[in-house]
Automatic annotation (TrEMBL):
Pfam families: ACOX (PF01756), ACOX_C_alpha1 (PF22924), Acyl-CoA_dh_M (PF02770). It comes from Gossypium mustelinum. SUPFAM superfamilies: Acyl-CoA dehydrogenase C-terminal domain-like, Acyl-CoA dehydrogenase NM domain-like. Residues 330-485 form the Acyl-CoA oxidase C-alpha1 domain. This is Acyl-coenzyme A oxidase.
Length: 627
């Protein structure tokens, strides 16, 4: 008590106490400026302080390339708008509205117009998407639903009349839309969809119907609150004059208005329900759509691969349902490419947070000496360094995928379409699975502080988790890769040509299979083990052996179990084959990128090369168990 205070004053705080409390409270409202440190938080001198000099500008320019400027523009916009930044604590309803405001702000105030790049410059579109997703993954997904899925379906599956009618509204967000493919009973099996679009030749309309509860469109992004249109995938049914009465022409895409443009109320015959709170991505308003005899004009059929004339006749340049279906899905592969690319972006964020924390966090050390950075501990390095190296590898692999996808959009080369389909399936599956596991590892590497919501690991982990499921379940996608490899294997022995990405298998099957395991047969000096050619040979040898052995097993089991039963009997073998092949592709692209960087900047090569070796030996350690 101050000497001047009386007994009666004891219950009243002094002026000094009040001032101190106000100062403390003000720090919660007005944080200290960057670079200004509290004396209590000054860093102690590290016991080991070896610093590796890296030319950050050169490496950043090489990694981010020509689209760095537009990414910086996006970051600047959101940094200048605190009202558009996602708070740690936010309700689902508030998050959805914030997500919409973020998207509107980016397009209308930030002047970022990405829609034309979906077809014209996919690499630029994916660079924008990565930057947007780093602000809030919910925003990234809402952005993708609007432009890549809803907008992309109009551009890629429709014709000029659809682009002329809808382009501007999609671009400026007047026409917020949905991509209504998934049904309650059918996700991965798109050919099994049950929603029906029956042509009425009298009125020149299609009638969209949901025949049962299992056919309700489910998990449809933008549907619950904001969407005004939907691209609806349904079985196109035409009336006939034979005994059947109708003819099923397979799954097609239709533009269906779902809300009134003025009142925003659901249109007649359309029932919209909210899928509710999710594990993550609660800024995205996922909903369920049910159609009860909803009539749309015949022109609303997205008719690039199949059309219906005024008198009800079906026309197409593709002769079969399967070919039309394959062509349709081939044009939608951009969503899968985008997910692989976005997953790497999320991994970059998590690894950056974990490595920076590990450099600054000090714990224990030699007796009577300063504590050391936890990144100096071998266990912490083992957690994070292979992950850091893999992040670089995935960056270059997905960059290659984007380049091949861009080339495919320009040339429409049939062989390239198949190549991109299989490569995107494999990389999306492999990268998203790796990122999902790594997010938990990064959180653990940051100890208790990693559990604080403000450090983002919880949000990143929950929001990213679904990446392993949508745009194709990862296990299903790996089977597509394995099936494509087996087709290439069969074609090779029947004299067919191998496609570009799988070209190495030609050499593999002619030479590697006649040689002993390169890992066990040539285990020599350190220089040899660090030789990129040897390392790539080892990866490719493994893939070739797995391909040869699973082909023999399938042939054997098909005789007794049939093709479906044989496939199921060998399923784990097939998944291992697919993962092995994708690892070989990733490594090849990583080596190419490192060598290219070396040619451009030799003095800065060593740190970058080290990450490459870490990535390769992480997988080489597992080789013995495969044989």
């Amino acid at each position: 008590m101050e000497p001047s205070q009386t007994v009666e004053d004891k219950s009243q705080p002094s002026v000094a106490t009040v001032t101190r409390r106000i100062q403390r409270l003000s720090l919660h409202l007005i944080p200290l400026p960057p670079l200004q440190c509290s004396p209590q938080l000054d860093m102690l001198t590290c016991a080991k302080a070896n610093k590796q000099e890296v030319d950050v500008a050169s490496l950043s320019s090489y990694m981010r390339g020509k689209h760095r400027e537009i990414q910086e523009k996006i970051f600047y916009f959101f940094n200048s708008r605190p009202d558009l930044q996602t708070p740690t604590e936010i309700s689902m309803k508030e998050h959805r509205e914030l997500c919409l405001r973020q998207l509107l702000g980016l397009v209308r105030e930030g002047k970022i117009k990405p829609f034309r790049y979906v077809v014209e410059d996919p690499a630029k579109y994916f660079a924008i998407s990565e930057a947007v997703g780093s602000i809030d993954i919910s925003l990234g997904i809402k952005f993708g639903v609007q432009y890549s899925l809803w907008g992309g379906s109009v551009l890629n599956l429709g014709t000029k009349k659809h682009r002329d009618k809808y382009f501007d509204g999609i671009d400026n967000l007047d026409y917020l839309g949905c991509f209504a493919m998934t049904e309650l009973h059918h996700g991965s099996n798109v050919q099994g969809l049950q929603t029906v679009a029956t042509f009425d030749p009298i009125t020149d309309e299609f009638i969209i119907d949901t025949p049962n509860d299992g056919a309700i469109k489910w998990w449809i992004g933008n549907a619950a609150v904001h969407g005004k249109f939907a691209t609806v995938f349904a079985r196109l049914v035409l009336p006939t004059h034979d005994s059947k009465g109708v003819s099923d022409m397979g799954v097609h895409a239709f533009i269906v208005p779902i809300r009134d443009l003025k009142t925003h109320q659901p249109l007649p015959g359309i029932e919209i329900n909210d899928c509710g709170h999710k594990i993550g991505l609660n800024g995205v308003d996922n909903g369920a759509l049910r159609f009860r005899s909803v009539r749309i004009p015949r022109d609303n059929l997205l008719n690039r691969f199949g059309d219906v004339t005024r008198d009800g006749k079906y026309t197409s340049s593709l002769p079969t349902i399967n070919k039309r279906f394959a062509a349709t899905l081939g044009e939608l592969v951009g969503g899968r490419v985008g997910l692989a690319h976005s997953s790497v972006g999320i991994l970059k964020i998590a690894v950056t947070i974990a490595v920076r924390y590990s450099l600054l966090r000090q714990q224990f050390g030699p007796p009577k000496q300063p504590e050391v950075s936890i990144l100096d501990y071998q266990s912490q390095q083992h957690k994070l360094m292979p992950m850091l190296a893999s992040t670089y590898a995935f960056h270059f692999a997905t960059q290659y995928l984007v380049e091949k996808y861009s080339e495919m959009k320009k040339t429409h080369d049939e062989q390239l379409v198949g190549d991109v389909h299989a490569l995107s399936a494999g990389l999306k599956s492999y990268v998203t699975s790796f990122t999902a596991k790594s997010l938990s590892t990064c959180r653990e590497a940051c100890g208790g502080h990693g559990y604080a919501a403000v450090n983002r690991f919880g949000t990143l982990r929950n929001d990213h988790d679904i990446f392993q499921t949508f745009e194709g379940d990862n296990t299903v996608l790996l089977q597509q890769v394995a099936a494509d490899l087996l087709k290439q294997y069969k074609d090779k022995f029947q004299g067919g040509a191998l496609s570009v990405t799988w070209n190495y298998l030609r050499e593999s099957m002619n030479t590697y299979l006649s040689q002993p395991n390169p890992v066990t047969a040539r285990w020599e000096s350190e220089d040899h083990l660090r030789d990129p050619k040897f390392q790539l040979d080892a990866f490719r040898y493994r893939t070739s052996r797995l391909l040869q052995s699973v082909a023999a097993r399938l042939q054997k089991h098909t005789k007794t179990l049939g093709s479906f039963g044989a496939w199921n009997r060998c399923l784990n073998h097939l998944l291992t084959l697919a993962e092995s092949h994708i690892e070989s592709v990733i490594l090849a692209k990583f080596i190419e990128a490192v060598q290219k960087y070396f040619l451009n900047s030799a003095t800065k090569f060593i740190p970058f090369l080290s990450t490459c070796h870490i990535y390769k030996f992480e997988f080489l350690n597992c080789f013995e168990c495969n044989f």
